[in-house]
TrEMBL record:
<keyword id="KW-0067">ATP-binding</keyword>
<keyword id="KW-0547">Nucleotide-binding</keyword>
<keyword id="KW-0418">Kinase</keyword>
<dbReference type="GO" id="GO:0043065">
    <property type="term" value="P:positive regulation of apoptotic process"/>
</dbReference>
<dbReference type="InterPro" id="IPR000719">
    <property type="entry name" value="Prot_kinase_dom"/>
</dbReference>
<dbReference type="GO" id="GO:0004674">
    <property type="term" value="F:protein serine/threonine kinase activity"/>
</dbReference>
<keyword id="KW-0808">Transferase</keyword>
<feature type="domain" description="Protein kinase">
    <location>
        <begin position="41"/>
        <end position="296"/>
    </location>
</feature>
<dbReference type="GO" id="GO:0035556">
    <property type="term" value="P:intracellular signal transduction"/>
</dbReference>
<dbReference type="GO" id="GO:0005634">
    <property type="term" value="C:nucleus"/>
</dbReference>
<dbReference type="InterPro" id="IPR008271">
    <property type="entry name" value="Ser/Thr_kinase_AS"/>
</dbReference>
<protein>
    <recommendedName>
        <fullName>Protein kinase domain-containing protein</fullName>
    </recommendedName>
</protein>
<keyword id="KW-0723">Serine/threonine-protein kinase</keyword>
<dbReference type="Pfam" id="PF00069">
    <property type="entry name" value="Pkinase"/>
</dbReference>
<dbReference type="GO" id="GO:0005524">
    <property type="term" value="F:ATP binding"/>
</dbReference>
<dbReference type="InterPro" id="IPR011009">
    <property type="entry name" value="Kinase-like_dom_sf"/>
</dbReference>
């Protein structure tokens, strides 16, 4: 059977250069602070070659609209896996989730035509703006939590929350909003006993995923806790020399807030990280409760510069 939707390929004119790809392994952000971490910037700004897919910027000839086309290699990904992602995307409509526009097939790939996030990946966007403040970190995180709150109300777990899957678009007024993308690992949790395979780097994976135990909706909140740490410090809390050592750090909850990386970061921000990084999934708050945390409320930040990333852009958005 064909995918549910088809478009004529000639309606799309694509650039040769890829704009994003699903990596064989998650690009290394920064080493653990306790290991003399390095900048988060270089690896995330370098080109990423895809194992399963490559995403290209295309122009839709009919509407003149820029779109992103995700080509999934048929030799590397079964049709049912792609159809699962497609079926989920078709059901979703939220301002902080990248929209599926259409689909088609080529002899070698399945293609998903997606909304174009005109400002690219979140970390790239932050780097381009200079100094990053704690208030803006909270603003970006609110956008992601709005998306997760919506997904989790639908009993959908994303299971691949990481910086590479957070994109930025500008509103009509020029304010950035963060959008969640890449639902290749997402799953409808109709059972309490779904075990998800650990693919690629475990850097942002929850302890239950690492241990091969059933995942839950709050598995996404653990991953967001790791993302929060990265945004605040420019370093990764659990990443180590090997996947095995990284997994051990995750399962032992072996992380800290070194002064060199968290100079100027408020205690409220650190407490929010600790709130999410709980080994027991049942002790992590759901996305809706996270949105009520005072640190995440608009205007609560004091404007202090944080981390090693940078940023002076305002933040827009607001979910439904």
């Amino acid at each position: 059977a064909h995918l549910p939707f088809r478009v004529r390929r000639e309606r799309l004119r694509c650039d040769k250069a890829q704009i994003r790809a699903k990596p064989t392994d998650t690009p290394r952000t920064a080493r653990r602070p306790t290991g003399g971490g390095r900048s988060v910037l270089s690896a995330l700004l370098s080109p990423v070659l895809g194992r399963f897919s490559v995403v290209k910027r295309c122009d839709h000839r009919g509407t003149k609209r820029a779109v992103a086309v995700k080509h999934v290699n048929k030799k590397l990904m079964r049709r049912d896996r792609v159809t699962q992602e497609l079926n989920l995307l078709q059901r979703l409509q939220h301002p902080h989730i990248v929209t599926l526009i259409d689909t088609y097939e080529t002899p070698s790939s399945y293609a998903l035509v997606l909304e174009m996030a005109d400002q690219g990946r979140l970390l790239d966007y932050i780097v381009s703006w200079g100094n990053l403040t704690e208030e803006k970190v909270a603003c970006y995180l609110r956008n992601v939590l709005e998306a997760l709150h919506y997904l989790h109300n639908c009993r959908i777990a994303h299971l691949d929350i990481k910086p590479e899957n957070l994109l930025v678009s500008h509103t009509a007024s020029g304010q950035p909003i963060v959008k969640l993308t890449d639902f290749g690992d997402a799953v409808q949790l109709n059972s309490a006993h779904y075990v998800h395979p650990l693919l690629g780097s475990p850097e942002f994976a929850s302890p239950e995923l690492v241990l091969g135990e059933p995942v839950s909706l709050t598995s996404d909140l653990w991953s967001l806790g790791v993302v929060t740490y990265v945004l605040l410090s420019g370093a990764s809390p659990f990443l180590d020399e090997s996947a095995e050592e990284t997994c051990l750090n995750i399962c032992r909850l072996d992380f800290s807030f070194p002064r060199d990386y968290f100079q100027g970061v408020s205690q409220a921000a650190r407490d929010f990280v600790c709130l999410l990084l709980k080994t027991d999934p049942g002790r992590r708050p759901p996305a809706g409760l996270c949105l009520q945390e005072p640190w995440l409320q608009a205007g609560q930040g004091d404007g202090r510069t944080v981390g090693a990333l940078g940023g002076s852009a305002e933040c827009g958005g607001g979910g439904r």
